[in-house]
Each structure stands twice: as C-alpha cells, then as structure tokens.
C-alpha cells in the first residue's frame, strides 16, 4: 500500500465496480481509507444486476492489505442510499468521504427521447447524488467534518449531442454540490465536483461511424480511468481542507479548474426596456459574446497528455 494520507478515514464510493469508480476505490484504499465498494453491477443503461464487480474490487483491496466491503444497494432509492451509508457505519464505525460516481446512460436525440429514458437517467445520476449525500449529511454534521466528491461531466458543463437527460443531470450535480458546500460549510463539510475524461464502458457507447468519429474515439481510448483517482484522493484528504464549492476536470495528466457562471456583459437603459428596444440594442450588443453550440470535443481538441 502507498502513503496513508487517508488513514482512519472511511469512504463510500458508488459505482465502484468498474472504470473510474474502481480506480477511485483502489486509490482511496491505498491511501489508508476503509472503503465501501458500492455497485449493483448493471449495464451502462441500468439493466440487470451483478455483485461480482464490487466483490472483485473488494478482493483486490483486501489482497493489497486494505479494508473494504461490498455493497449492492441502489443510489436511485432513498432507503437504499441510507442503507449503503449504514453499511459504512456497521462495518467501520463512521463515514468521512462520499464519492458519488454511479451513473447510467440512455442516449437519445431530444425529440425522440422518452419519458422513461429521461427519468431513469435523472433518478440515478442526479437524484442518486442527492439521496446518498443526504444520507451521509447527519453523520458529517455530527462529527463536524466530511468530504463529498461528485462526478460530473463535460456533457453538462459544455454540451454533447443526444444527451439531454445525462447533461441535465450532470449540470444539476454541479449546482447540488455548490449548494451542499454552502449549506454545510459551518459544519466543516466540503463538497466539490470533478469531471473525468476516461475510456470506460459508458464512453464506449459513443458512435464511431464516420472517420471523424473514429478518430475521436481512438483519442478517447488513450484516457486511462485510473488517472482520475489520485486527484480524488487528494481532494478527499485534509490537504484539501480549504477546497470546497469548486468544479474540476481530470484528463490523463491534466487537471482543470472550471469557471462558474457569472455575468459577462450588461445592458442598461434609464427608460426601461420594450421588446423592440431589446431586439434593436441588446441582442446586437451581446452577439459577439454569445456561446456557440460547442460539444465537449469542440472545446477539448488537443490530444491527451
């Protein structure tokens, strides 16, 4: 095992059976934390259940000399979210770190998206973050400390095609994280969001039909999910005690701090606005600063380093 930056801490990592979540669980354990490895083992679209991935990660942690238990509760259910926090308390006596990583995809172009496709993604990717975070909140408050790390996505921060449900959830996670940071600051509780770039089962669903798409997918395959974990471990530690309410990105060996929405232009009139004067004056004033309909790949155009 490596440095014991998180010795004595107890972490819950959702969706920790594979990909980014697995890398985070292993890294937190290597840093000395006891880890609840939560994963119900569904497909990328949320079907089925298989506890083997979570148990395999636990076995790997135990073999390396760490402490871990598997948990198969669903983040998309209030009672089960509380049950997974209880797993941490029953197994290790406390909870200090929550990593909200679990997520599913139901990619569909907006005008064809069904209510079920929308609600399933919102239930797991946004409601699940609230349920698990809320379940841990009284314990963080009582012990006057805790760290939330929520996995967001450039699909929400920038935009992507065919992901209205996923983008809405992931940008919602950013707002939820900021609200948690504000509301629980007085209890020494921190909350941050991290957007990971990594080749995982979920990214593997990206279509690769045109030459341009194939080139992008080949670039994405260079993104190693384990590269996300060291930053998350640092963010969970006391070394990040002053870091809260922020939005970060990790892409191989690059770490980003994202901007947050602030006014960039203003228009004022002493006479008040009419629809006609808005059209005549405001839109032309603002036009140069309008954001184009960028997708994530339009913004992050350079090869991973």
From TrEMBL:
UniProt signal peptide: none
Domain Ketoreductase, residue spans: 9-202
Domain of life: Bacteria
InterPro entries: KR_dom, NAD(P)-bd_dom_sf, Peroxisomal_Beta-Oxidation, Sc_DH/Rdtase_CS, SDR_fam
Family label: Belongs to the short-chain dehydrogenases/reductases (SDR) family.
PANTHER family: BLL2957 PROTEIN, DEHYDROGENASES, SHORT CHAIN
Protein name: SDR family oxidoreductase
Provenance organism: Denitromonas halophila
């Amino acid at each position: 095992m490596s440095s014991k930056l998180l010795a004595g801490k107890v972490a819950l990592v959702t969706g920790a059976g594979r990909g980014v979540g697995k890398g985070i669980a292993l890294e937190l354990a290597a840093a000395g934390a006891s880890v609840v490895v939560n994963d119900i083992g569904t497909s990328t679209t949320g079907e089925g259940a298989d506890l083997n991935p979570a148990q395999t990660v636990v076995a790997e942690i135990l073999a390396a000399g760490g402490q871990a238990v598997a948990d198969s509760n669903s983040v998309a259910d209030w009672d089960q979210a509380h049950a997974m926090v209880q797993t941490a308390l029953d197994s290790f006596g406390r909870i200090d770190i929550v990593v909200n990583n679990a997520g599913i995809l139901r990619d569909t172009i907006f005008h064809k998206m069904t209510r079920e496709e929308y609600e399933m993604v919102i239930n797991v990717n946004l409601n699940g973050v609230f349920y698990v975070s809320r379940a841990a909140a009284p314990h963080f408050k009582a012990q006057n400390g805790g760290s939330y790390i929520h996995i967001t996505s450039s699909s929400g921060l920038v935009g992507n095609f065919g992901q209205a449900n996923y983008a809405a959830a992931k940008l919602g996670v950013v707002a939820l994280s900021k609200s948690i940071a504000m509301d629980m600051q007085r209890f020494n509780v921190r909350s941050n969001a991290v957007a990971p770039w990594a080749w995982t089962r979920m990214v593997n669903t990206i279509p690769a039909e045109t030459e341009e798409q194939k080139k992008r997918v080949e670039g994405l395959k260079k993104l190693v999910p384990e590269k996300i974990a060291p930053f998350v471990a640092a963010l969970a530690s006391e070394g990040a005690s002053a870091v809260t309410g922020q939005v970060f990105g990790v892409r191989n060996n690059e770490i980003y701090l994202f901007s947050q929405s602030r006014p960039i232009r203003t228009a004022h009139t002493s006479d008040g606005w009419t629809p006609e004067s808005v059209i005549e004056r405001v839109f032309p004033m603002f036009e140069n600063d309008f954001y184009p309909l960028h997708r994530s790949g339009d913004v992050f155009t350079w090869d991973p380093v």
